[in-house]
Amino acid sequence: MTIIVTGGAGFIGSNFIYYQLQKHPEDRIVCMDALTYAGNLKTLKEAMTHDQFRFVKADIADRGAVNQLFEEEHPDIIVNFAAESHVDRSVVNPEVFLRTNIMGTQVLMDACRKYGIKRYHQVSTDEVYGDLPLDQPELFFTEDTPIHTSSPYSASKAGADLIVLAYARTFKLPVSITRCSNNYGPYHFPEKLIPLMISRALADESLPVYGTGENIRDWLYVEDHCSAIDLVMRKGREGEVYNVGGHNERTNLEVVRTILRELDKPERLIHYVTDRPGHDRRYAIDPAKIHNELGWLPQTRFDDGIRMTVQWYLDNQSWWQDILKGDYQNYYQQMYGNR
Ligand code: NAD
Ligand code: DAU
Questions:
Q1: In angstroms, rounded to a whole number, what is the distance separating the alpha carbons of residues 219 and 283?
Q2: Is ligand 1 within 6 A of the CB of residue 33?
């Protein structure tokens, strides 16, 4: 089989490529990535040595480039990871989120219609369900929870999901969608909570916690997300949405304190800063459907996963330090300078 993985030079897409190359060495993997600020070819260095791997620099919203790739590769499966993924950036500049996340998805869907595919898989997020209150821990997102978005990022991801489902119904395209909770692990760009806190704590810099730090996220080790997508795109029912999460809820403050303990750094590094506008309070996934239908269960406990992640950032300092040297400095100043 030939599988096109869009956004494969980013965090989850690259982990997914390594998962595929190891688990299904018989399949050909073609990574299509525009290499935005979040894409990094160094991440794919090892993959580049595989005979079954090809990298193509292209934008998913570029119809000509997408069609050309379909004509060259005759893919069986498309897995769409390509997206603008950071909520804070979507508050500053929403436009590119709509372009990539919605229009890009539509261009891919059109190519699937034109050339035919066995499966189109959309990598979506629990953020499409909005948020849950902090004082009702018995509530979870199920696949039937109404779409109710908070940020331009989540609205763009919800728009993409609706386009995918509309193409499935109207044009009978074989699609599936996974909506996953927060991931963490290797190759996570240091704008996101966990890698940002690890990289700053290592430099004894202040750790910017939004608001009171009581917001809750449901953390999943990235490899467990990869195994869920692999199962759904190969064995999941067509036209279905599957929630992915491991019942691993933590407040942001708990996460930051865990990182400080792992690194043996003091809590006085924590600085409370102005909250994110529209900040979602709690995400919590009910993963019963993917468990009951496909037998999926996460394999990595948070305590182990966070230890492995901290160790990865210690062992791969040049990977993230190179990122911190570039445009990132302006980004950090713009986002946190006056907070
Ligand atoms: P990321 O920002 O690390 O990577 C995104 C990748 O997409 C980058 O390699 C970038 O170069 C590429 N890209 C961006 N615009 C593109 C375009 N127009 N054409 C082609 N490539 C483009 O993101 P991530 O955290 O790996 O997230 C991947 C996907 O998973 C996204 O769709 C995101 O919404 C979803 N998701 C992420 C999480 C999470 O916790 N990170 C959780 C659930 C779902
Ligand atoms: O739930 C899935 C989503 O998880 C994905 O769809 C998104 O692509 C991904 O970025 C992530 O979104 P979040 O907004 O939850 O992740 P982020 O790492 O940006 O923030 C996690 C929490 O930490 C959130 O409550 C905001 C807080 N935070 C974040 C940063 C960057 C801070 O307190 N300080 C920070 O500096």
A1: 9
A2: yes
